[in-house]
Amino acid sequence: MYHKIARKLQQQQDDSLPQQLTPEVLEKMRTLQEILEYHINILQIPKSEIHPGLKDKLPSYERRILIFVNSNRSIRQRGLN
């Protein structure tokens, strides 16, 4: 999902696409990219380096990640039908 968004944003910057996205859509994509980057960084923290404050927030991060994954699945499934 992250790479797909990054690729679309890069294509927009290259101006190689005849169809330009609206500024609102671009901003939403950038925001989503930042959120995904944040969660990817959280997932890359070694287990031995997770401090108690972060450990308390892990269930919340897990829910957010699952929401992203499930929403992406439902979008793909609708596209296949």
TrEMBL record:
Residues 9-21 have a biased composition (Low complexity). Residues 1-21 are annotated as: Disordered. It comes from the Eukaryota. One of its GO terms (molecular function) is chromatin DNA binding. This is Mediator of RNA polymerase II transcription subunit 15a-like. It comes from Punica granatum. The lineage of its organism: Eukaryota, Viridiplantae, Streptophyta, Embryophyta, Tracheophyta.
